[in-house]
Amino acid sequence: MPSAARLRLTWFAALFALALSAFASAPDATVAADGSGDYTSLQEAISKAPMRTGASDPRWVILVKPGTYRERIYVQRERGRILVRGAGPANTTITFDLHANLPGPDGKPLGTFNTPTVQIDGDGMIWEDITLANTAGPVGQALALRADGDRLVFRRCRFLGWQDTMLLNRGRHYFEDCYIEGHVDFIFGGATAYFSRCEIHALRDGYLTAASTPEGTPHGFVFADCRVTAAEAVKTYLGRPWRNFARTVFLRTELSAAVRAEGWHNWGKPAAELTTFYADYASTGPGANATARAPWAKPLSEADTATLTAPAVLAGADAWNPLAP
């Protein structure tokens, strides 16, 4: 075949593949604050999505155009098969500002669990290129995200808050290329979660994680190839146990000088030192100090890390692989 013809064929094939890709990823619904989409509210778009719960059901795609959407989002269990895609975390933000000390309908404080900007009960949801924020500030517990579903995926998202930014309550969750910031226990809960290439940013002295891993659960929080950064002069622990069988591991993570030499705190519960599983392996940066870690932290070998990949940690009984196409 002459080279010019071959080039035209290659170009046509590439164009056709691009068109197919664009068609396949075309949204089923568009949210736009200016009224140019199907909805002006993400909650409305989610509430109108089909009820799909099976792992093989087609995923409903919602595009959220640039803007700041001040609303609370609830995803019910029957509508988990949804992909929410923003226009980039710097451009699309979902935000609210409830906190635990505000009075609820009964006049009593709301409490931590009732404050999320986004609460997900449905299984199999994906969020991409968006910011989820709770802007209550330093007034107590205030969730940007509460995750109760299973097989949840977050790619290129930002999570902004202060205390208790992210409650991973149950299920399995995968975070890739995300940014998470807070002050105290801002990644916490009993879920199994894998963080790949994420930045964890401490705003003030505190604790990055507070796992409450149930007894007998093989994995809690795993951070792989991440970065821990902080505001100026901040000092932080990698984690402390909300419950006594907490499991948290950092692998090949760049740790800033903000990370305290001992790494881990027992939350004033000496008994937890016997039951937790806290470790960091092949850390780099000024906060990497294996010889000074708390004596009850666990050692890890290179062989151990082979079992700490995202597909292995998150597989479960259904062999879920968040990296599969």
Q: Could you walk me through the main structural features you see in this protein, from its secondary elements to its overall organization?
A:
The protein is mainly beta and about 325 residues long. The longest helix has 22 residues, at about 5-25. Strands 3, 4, 6, 7, 9, 10, 12, 13, 15, 17, 19, 20 and 22 form a 13-stranded parallel beta sheet that branches. The chain has a 10-stranded parallel beta sheet with strand order 1-2-5-8-11-14-16-18-21-23. The chain is built from 4 helices and 23 strands. About 10% of the residues lie in helices and about 30% in strands. Strand 1, helix 2 and strand 2 (about 60-65) form a beta-alpha-beta unit. It has a single domain, classed as Pectate Lyase C-like, CATH 2.160.20. The chain starts with a helix and ends in an 11-residue tail after the last helix.
Q: How many separate helices?
A: 4
Poorly predicted runs are 1-24
The profile of the biggest β sheet is: 13 strands, parallel
Structural class: mainly beta
Would you tell me the overall average pLDDT?
Answer: 92
